[in-house]
Design a protein that fits this description.
mainly alpha
Amino acid sequence: MDSKCEHGEGEWLGMSLFGDLVALSNRALLKWIRNPAAVLPGFFTALFYIALFGNSFNPTGLVPSNINGFQLSATELAQLKSAILSQTFGGAATYISYLTAGIISLILVFNMAFGGIDLVLDRQLGFLNTILTAPISRASIYFSGVVQNMVKAMALAFITFVVAVLLPNGLVVGKGFGVLSFIGAFGAFALLAFALSCVFTALALSVKSIDSLVAIVNFATFPLVFTSTALFPSADFPSWLKSISNYNPITWATDAARLLMINGTLSSSLAVSYEWSLLYLVVFAVAMAVAGNFAARRALSPI
């Protein structure tokens, strides 16, 4: 009898936790969707990042048509640019094809980092204190913040992918790229988004002001992005930077998605690389969820 009661109580608590999480996430997402000023910039951010970075950072644009008085023909110039992309950028058809995965990761990082501002505002406006007095699990408050930021960022990631495909000289996916490849690429992005959301949501619940959050976020995000392979391959990195890049989760997520976008169908060796990347991201995501939940519970506990 007692075991049945305990089982029923545990089941009820699980349903309550899930229900609270859905309700709190739904509230935040409805506010976001109903505010065009919050949604539309995401589209233009994706457009600007892909169009501007894809053209201004394009190394093939630096190839001269005249070398020491020797004029390259249009065919020779095209072959040289193609060789650079093939040998340095993993066989990408265009630089934007290489860059797209990195830009999506970059958008995920910045949206995860600054997504916690809403949580800080909830604290300052008293909403967070109100729900803390209600019989709501602290875990549901924390993970609702994780979920809402992840959903917003993944929506922007999808928009970025579509923009990259539609741009002139934009994303050219590899042969055999289909629904499963798309799911595989965005699965890597989703794991990265979840892990980073766990970190930055816990941070947002721990600070008391937006100024503090922005200062910490600005300090953390740029090193995180520029020590990864989001914009350029690590082959020419200095040894110390390459060592950091090898442990950077942005590198693992970007490289995993990039493998699928550029190659489409993966060979056995590339498939193994993708699987190792996914395993690393799963372990990292679980670790961040556990650590973030612990930190958030401490931050939300009464003093």
